[in-house]
Specification:
This protein is an alpha/beta fold. The chain is 41% helix and 16% strand. It has 13 helices and twelve strands. The protein has a six-stranded mixed sheet. Strand 3, helix 5 and strand 4 form a beta-alpha-beta unit. Helix 3 packs antiparallel against helix 5 and helix 7 packs antiparallel against helix 8. The longest helix is centred in the C-terminal third of the chain and has 23 residues. It starts with a helix and ends with a helix. The structure holds zinc ion (ZN).
Length: 400
């Protein structure tokens, strides 16, 4: 048996990066078991009780100080592990999502994110004796609806974080993406019931208002900028054909890649709701969720993640042109942030589909999950080891 110390590279960072990779490999079974368990038990936004409990249990078992629930969200987790090297050091946030899509399951593959985030945190804890600062694992619920990360930001759970790292599954490899600002809008029209044949003139038709709103949006689309999205579904449209509908409701989403333009379209959408109510003699109640923002990709962090990918022979395919929306973007306004995507399936498989859901539990997804844990942990090691890198990320952040 050769002396292993003697063959270690001289650069301490290189050594630590190899050790976190080995730690992920050592935890392979536990990481993949977590991914598969969450995949088999999909829980929608704010209701991720099993996933959060399983994650908290694993981290507690490995010596993390675990807050769960954390802040105001029952399914949020904040778990910390101190570096053993002493002195001032950064607090590096390792994030994990675990919500599923109603009626579809893990069609966005968040089970792989939960598992890779846990894997990265465990790998860093394995070398924590040689790190300064603090490892902060943040389990972030409700990405698909409700912007859980914004709630956690408001709860103060991101205070003092120097960098936020996570991975998201995709059909391609991208380090940077440009998600759209997005909000959910609930619209309810209220009118008055009457007999649809005997005395329809006595009623005020809430469904008519909703149809007018959809027509307005349909016409409006021609004048919208190409990267703007307005899309909705009807939730309630009346109860019987012989009753003038008293209540009709819809769930819309508004999105734009430009934060200022987003505010314009939101104001316009609300005017359209009011116009439809005016035209039909009904009233409109519009509730805007408070959603996700545009993303500020941190180039300093992205360059490190990209270099770590390259060491595994993975090429960055360039910015993702078709990003949806994510509350990770909200975090990017709080501290230096990256949201890299790694492929779990062939190019062209659409996210939020049955195909993508099924891909999220395949051997290929498993390998990506483990690699993502390694790359996130390696990028964190570089930040822990190099105060100048953290400072450079913040300098870019402050420059806007
Ligand atoms: Zn997602």
């Amino acid at each position: 048996m050769p002396d292993r110390i003697a063959v270690r590279p001289a650069e301490p960072q290189v050594d630590l990066k190899a050790r976190v990779a080995a730690a992920v490999e050592g935890d392979r079974a536990e990481i993949l078991d977590l991914s598969h368990r969450i995949h088999a038990n999909p829980e929608p936004a704010f209701l991720e009780h099993n996933a959060a409990a399983w994650i908290a249990e694993i981290l507690r078992g490995r010596g993390f100080a675990v807050e769960h629930p954390a802040g105001s969200l029952e399914t949020a987790i904040r778990a910390t592990y101190p570096g053993g090297r002493g002195g001032d050091g950064p607090r590096i946030g390792i994030l994990a999502e675990y919500d599923a899509l109603p009626g579809l399951g893990h069609g966005c593959g968040h089970n792989t994110m939960a598992a890779s985030g846990v894997g990265a945190a465990l790998a860093l804890a394995a070398v924590a004796d040689e790190l300064p600062g603090e490892i902060v694992f943040l389990g972030t619920p409700a990405e698909e609806r409700g912007s859980g990360k914004q709630i956690m930001i408001d709860d103060g759970l991101f205070a003092g974080i120097d960098a936020a790292l996570l991975y998201h599954p995709c059909d391609r490899n991208h380090v940077e993406s440009h998600p759209l600002a997005s909000e959910d809008v609930d619209v309810v029209f209220t009118g008055l019931q009457s007999h649809a044949a005997a005395d329809p003139w006595k009623g005020r038709n809430a469904l008519d208002a909703l149809i007018l709103l959809f027509s307005s949006v349909g016409l409006w689309r021609q004048q919208l900028r190409p990267t703007t999205r307005v899309h909705g579904i009807i939730r309630e449209g009346g109860t019987a054909a012989n009753i003038i509908p008293e209540r009709a409701s819809a769930w819309f989403m508004l999105r734009s890649e430009d934060q200022a333009y987003y505010e314009e379209i939101k104001a316009r959408f609300i005017q359209m709701c009011e116009a439809a109510a005016l035209a039909t003699g009904t009233t409109a109640e519009v509730t805007v969720s408070g959603g996700s923002t545009t993303m500020r990709n941190n180039g300093v962090l992205a360059a490190r993640f990209r270099a770590n990918m390259a060491a595994y022979g993975i090429e960055d395919m360039g910015d993702d042109p078709t990003a949806g929306s994510t509350d990770m973007a909200n975090v990017s306004w709080v501290c230096p942030t990256i949201h890299p995507d790694l492929a779990i399936c062939d190019d062209g498989v659409p996210a939020h589909s049955i195909l993508f859901r099924d891909a999220a539990a395949t051997p290929r997804a498993d390998e990506t999950t483990l690699l993502a844990a390694t790359l996130v942990a390696q990028t964190a090691v570089e930040l822990f080891s190099d105060p100048a890198l953290v400072e450079a990320a913040w300098a870019e952040f402050r420059a806007g």
